Amino acid sequence: SNSNNKKMPALEVNPDLQKERNTATFDPQEFSVYWAGGQEKYKAKKTLEELFLDDPALKDDLPTSYMSHKELYENSVRKSCLIGQKIRKLRADGEDGVDTYNALLGGSLGAALLKEGNPLSLHYVMFVPTIMGQGTTEQQVEWLPKAWDCEIIGTYAQTELGHGTFLRGLETRADYDASTQEFVINTPTRTAYKWWPGGLGHTANYAVVVAQLYTKGEFRGLAPFIVQLRDLDNHQPMQGIDIGDIGTKLGMKGVNNGYLGLKNVRVPLNHMLMKNQQVLPDGTYVAPKNSVLTYGTMMFVRCALIRDTAQSLAKSSTIATRYSAVRRQSPIDPNQPEPQIMDHTTQQLKLFPQIAKAIVFKTTGDGVWNMYNVISGEIEQGNLDRLPEMHALSCCLKAICSTDAAAGVETCRLSCGGHGFMDCSNFPTIYGMTTAVCTYEGENTVMLLQTARYLVKVYGQALNGEQLVPTVAYINEAIKLKEFVNFDGSLESIVKAFQFVAANKVRVAYEQIELRRRQGHGTEVSANLCGPLLTAAADLHGRAFLAQSAYKELTEVASHVSPALADVLKVVLELYLVDACLNRIGDFLRFIELTDRDVTNLEIRLESCLNRLRPNAVALVDSFDLHDRVLDSALGAYDGNVYERIFESTKKNPLNKEPVNAAFHKYLKPFMKANL
Amino acid sequence: SNSNNKKMPALEVNPDLQKERNTATFDPQEFSVYWAGGQEKYKAKKTLEELFLDDPALKDDLPTSYMSHKELYENSVRKSCLIGQKIRKLRADGEDGVDTYNALLGGSLGAALLKEGNPLSLHYVMFVPTIMGQGTTEQQVEWLPKAWDCEIIGTYAQTELGHGTFLRGLETRADYDASTQEFVINTPTRTAYKWWPGGLGHTANYAVVVAQLYTKGEFRGLAPFIVQLRDLDNHQPMQGIDIGDIGTKLGMKGVNNGYLGLKNVRVPLNHMLMKNQQVLPDGTYVAPKNSVLTYGTMMFVRCALIRDTAQSLAKSSTIATRYSAVRRQSPIDPNQPEPQIMDHTTQQLKLFPQIAKAIVFKTTGDGVWNMYNVISGEIEQGNLDRLPEMHALSCCLKAICSTDAAAGVETCRLSCGGHGFMDCSNFPTIYGMTTAVCTYEGENTVMLLQTARYLVKVYGQALNGEQLVPTVAYINEAIKLKEFVNFDGSLESIVKAFQFVAANKVRVAYEQIELRRRQGHGTEVSANLCGPLLTAAADLHGRAFLAQSAYKELTEVASHVSPALADVLKVVLELYLVDACLNRIGDFLRFIELTDRDVTNLEIRLESCLNRLRPNAVALVDSFDLHDRVLDSALGAYDGNVYERIFESTKKNPLNKEPVNAAFHKYLKPFMKANL
């Protein structure tokens, strides 16, 4: 089933890796289909992979890590246009569903095609959707056909050099000039420059620019404007536009993030997107009915990010697990040869929790996604009851999953020793892509504080005896419980204990804020002083949700798959929960009466989970079904020919094309001969 | 005092940053002198910085992140030769002490000159010292003058593609041919290829190659051989030498790490370094008297690495702290303007512990360095008593400090939001350099296991009532104590509690290994099963040492500096200890009777430490006295003109030299116009 994963068909599978596959107790194919979302999606995925990955023009002869920033940009544009052409064709054939865009632009297939990101992504995922979501029907008719056909290429410019999360702080302003029926847009200071938008540097010729709106001399709030950045024929920046690439970065190196200064740039009245708020020709401002809609988009994106973090962990753990089956080092028994490093328990502790987290984040991401769809249906019908709850949940899960995923990628990299440090392992790129998620779409600490603010409010409601919405209902139970009894180490009791501990973390934060207030601080200052307690409470809330979700979803899946697969998933679940508990054991010991013995028992169970997962570790990562091009790793290829592939990678290194580099003649020789 | 730190003298210091300096309660200059190691070393440091940093040829017009791998290599060789010339001159003037080499090749000045590493480093720090340490007097006379004068450039080739930590696994072999009095050196397999040595790729023309020695057909153990790699005149690889650059990496990108295959390469008898072991012309092998000496070098390097990790934290915390004084975001009080982000308690919790760790790792590094010198003096006099203790200590400290430093760098980077993600922040490079320490000179998990092996042995001795050496003597006390009483939260009691907890972690590991043995597993298998318990025990042992060392060293320093500085150092110490304790609170709660209230009190103390350090945070990082070129960060420059410098950095971006990139005409335009 994984035959199309083989890149160098002449090479046989490494015998150590083959042995792992031969002795696995379940069929990875069964899990692969589940992982892809069912038989139909599995097939669609394979078809899409073939269509894109078999195209030789979309393969890089020179790995991107050898390119200069400029070469990387030019190569990224070349490929993004090829991908755009294929998308155009898929669209013409009616095969351009949301899944397809996701896979090609953000998903693992997208990363296989443009591993450092696609400079056209924001055109598809932000420019077009913003016009759809915030444009009037007339505006959609005017702009969407051109945008869909890529006759114009747009981006979305909101964040500024000096202003990020706090939108009210944005400085870019649009002043309506009723005499010409135009907006005059300016970035009045250096910190007002738009900063970060993907594709903005040298790629896009249009942007939706978010600015502070003024009409009739009065401030009206933020509004989005369609602004032409570059001439459609010669691509020169339009008058008043100062534009360029912000420079090299830790990751996402091909995205062409740009900066944008605007000086008295005039756009006509109908370039303001007016679905939600309007400016009339005379400058009269009509305010939006409600501002809930923007929450919807943010929640949508954050829910999607949870699944992205699962993919990062799936990739990293696949690479590190296969490598650990092939690499041999450090005898366990001095009289025996060096074992597969996966036989070291310390190595298992690095790898297997990442595999488990990949699975739990994926199933939780799916669950939250369904929840989002239900709630956003309710919202569209005017029922906003569950909006704050959903917002709070999506914030903390985004923060926790991205933090854990970034740490997990690094754990996997470090588990591969020096070889993980080489770009041919692909870990450095995966890390860059993953850790970026900690910052974009809401910086993680800000996210946790938003969740915490909600939790503290809910805690006050609970104290007042009010009923609570589903995802925080456990707080009411914990308040009634006072003391957690009967921690028997069962999975159910770990889940319950997580909730009890989370409720107590919220209690501590609540009580300390109240204490600060009684000491005379204002509410906001009190909350700031208790910031670390608040983020810790939000962290535990999210982890309690993950524990409960892991239990619910994996038990569910296990109930309708083969017994062989079900057995493996049960070990995954147990490993996840025991590991999660031990990682927060301080909080458990603080709020629940546990003995040294209880902790030792958990540690022994962890060891047992690792041992029981050991025989199926390779089969589990195989079942993530990640194409070799997606992994792009000499260490993690399906055939396990690690050393051959590392060696092969040196052949592509431009430095190795000549036996003697010019620097010898220019610098080294004169230096060495100077004293002779 | 920091006047030479200013890069763009036309710019005034950012007023927010200046305000921080004006309101600090101590004189950073006083701490700077201590930090440099006293007045004399402080002056020497300044002189060296001037000599090297003012040389325009050693400045890069184009930041390295914009270069291709090949360009970066060529630029690195150019600069390393210039640095080599200056070293030659210093040597001629008799000013080439160990400190100078350290500063230029490994230290922060070295990083300012060649931020991605120096391809000649291994020549100075491994090739020359190995000849000095392992060559006979005749060999030293033959090789050292040429090597010191850089008439030949060497490297040190030990690690192989398939073999790292476990030296007995190395495959490269040297067979002595008595008929010609030569060794025949071979890398018989692909995995035997030497891999990783710095400068090996295209720079060095010599190497010390470590190989398995065979004479008279018998295996004799490892031995070092001087091997010529390239022709001295034309730099072509010698016959039988397959050599090149291993490729791009996460960090240390300019080091030219290489690979080396040897096929029947013959070297004369006197090319084996024979100070410790000898081969006679007829092939008779004379074994070394003891193998202790290699431990010495490893300990030496690991002790030095502890101080490097302190530098990484000093750099990162300087950048992030200055940025946090300048950046304003997210109101605390909605009626107030956006505050300096350093006023957010959550931000303080990210930054200040890194400042404290920088100081504690530095003072501990100094302390351990002195200890190493004492013990290595004892060793030279034949007294090996404290060797295992010192080895165990250096292993776990190397692991803990590098792990914490790498995590600390990332915490600082993430605390700067999106801007930390840009290469112009310098965080990506600092991270690459720092996380590398987790892997080289002994992979961290292997290091912790070595320490743990020692601790478990010592625990057995303690149970037998034996006396223990100083750094583990606390285990005996803890065994007597049974229960830890009187945890009053004082700094002394936190240090004592750390030791008690560490002793109990060792106990748990010891008991579990014993249990596995009683269950019928062999000793080695039992130890492997308990691997996670062992590494956790070694971690706590190291952290207990750090706590005790922080207490001892900082109390010491505070006793003979000005009261103003002493007050600040006391807050640093308290912050370090309380934070360290809370980070391992699970272990504390497991072994010591602490209540929820006790933990809350620690949390309140942490908050109090953060608040008390807040006014002096900028002055503290100023007193690390890191030159702007060392920081190389738009976010962290002394003048705090963050936005101006970020903006300035975009001017150097080759993509921004032309308003329209060629990719528009080649790819974008045809793509956009395809449907028209």
TrEMBL record, chains A, B:
Protein name stated in the entry:
acyl-CoA oxidase
In this protein, which residues make up the domain named Acyl-CoA oxidase C-terminal? 491-673
Residue numbers annotated as active site: 441 (proton acceptor)
Question: CDD domains, alphabetically?
Answer: AXO
Q: Which organism is it from?
A: Drosophila rubida
Which SUPFAM superfamilies is this protein grouped with?
A: Acyl-CoA dehydrogenase C-terminal domain-like, Acyl-CoA dehydrogenase NM domain-like
Q: In which pathway does it act?
A: Lipid metabolism; peroxisomal fatty acid beta-oxidation
One Pfam family, please name it: Acyl-CoA_dh_M
Catalytic reaction annotation? a 2,3-saturated acyl-CoA + O2 = a (2E)-enoyl-CoA + H2O2
Q: What is its main location?
A: other
Q: Which cofactor does it need?
A: FAD
Q: What class of enzyme is it?
A: oxidoreductase
Could you tell me which InterPro entries the record lists for this protein? ACO, ACOX_C_alpha1, Acyl-CoA_ox_N, Acyl-CoA_Oxase/DH_mid-dom, Acyl-CoA_Oxase/DH_mid-dom_sf, Acyl-CoA_oxidase, Acyl-CoA_oxidase_C, AcylCo_DH-like_C
Q: Which family does it belong to?
A: Belongs to the acyl-CoA oxidase family.
- What's its EC? 1.3.3.6
Q: Quick one: which residues bind FAD?
A: 159, 198
